[in-house]
Amino acid sequence: MSTSSNSNTNTNGMEKTQQTLLLTEMRKLVVKQGSSAEHYGDPMLLRFLITSSMDPTKAAKMWIKWKKWREEIAPLGYIPQSEILDQLGAKKFYLQAKASQQLVLLFSFSKTTSMFAPKD
């Protein structure tokens, strides 16, 4: 019987060695199709494996489509502030963090700012 507390089992109930084999196979398929996943860690690739029901072939295809989309939308790896001045001018919060980062939210409202519509 395997539990999530077992060091050989991950949160999906899968053996770590089996997960590692699937990740390795996915990486090989990605390279074989002319792309790369070398700058991305296992947690990122695991998202695609989980979404594709742990099928490395499907996950590799999804990865390549995602990477192509990502390169089109943000060729520098990020969106420069100069391209989003209108959104920044709205002074809204735009949250973005990696899965490994802890995120603390802090909200500040001035007296003139209200979350609700004014009562006229």
Automatic annotation (TrEMBL):
InterPro entries reported in the protein's UniProt record: CRAL/TRIO_N_dom_sf
Protein name: Sec14p-like phosphatidylinositol transfer family protein
